[in-house]
Amino acid sequence: MIRFTFTAILIILLLSGCENPKQTSEITASKKKSDIAFYDRLFNQFADTYKDIPLFSKTQTETNTLTPMLTREIIGDFFQGFTYESDSKDSWQLLVDNSGDCEDYHLTLANYLVEHDYIDRKDIKLIVGDVTDTSKSTPETFRHAWLSITLEGKEYYIDYNYLIPLETSFAKNYTLHTAWNFR
Prior knowledge:
This protein is 23% helix and 24% strand. A 6-stranded antiparallel β-sheet has the order 1-8-4-5-6-7. It has 4 helices and 8 strands; from the N terminus they run βαααββαβββββ. By secondary structure, the chain is of the alpha+beta class. The protein has one domain (35-171). The protein has helices spanning 37-49, 54-57, 68-79, 102-115, and strands at 6-8, 83-84, 99-100, 124-133, 140-151, 154-158, 166-167, 174-181. 31% of the residues are buried.
């Protein structure tokens, strides 16, 4: 079994899946999940299915070659052609045909960064939480997944909705609920 650190925040997860921030999100009773165990199960299924990919199996490197500026270039390249596709089955997987939902995209990006020695597995986490879109007249909150990476002693969020890594001190609209390390 893959070893990972499971961090639970005191907030109970209400929704499963990931909402596209460009769509109107609505919290419905049919989508409610009562506890974080649901996401833990999805992560374990993903880890069991993909146990041989670099994200879980690569020997840790001595130094990270990733910098905030290089991250910006990689994210820009990685985002090109990405198509958001809702996952009604609630399964986590690597991207297929460059389409998938938020956790599929971010797991694929995390694997790429580790595989190409940009970052060590210990410095990257997958996060599930809520994001509030404040660009609209009525702010909307939706369930989402993103990455957290540690670069040069600072924590950054990587999210396909932005072309730059966000220093966590500036990511006020993100609420972390649970996270997994790839150790």
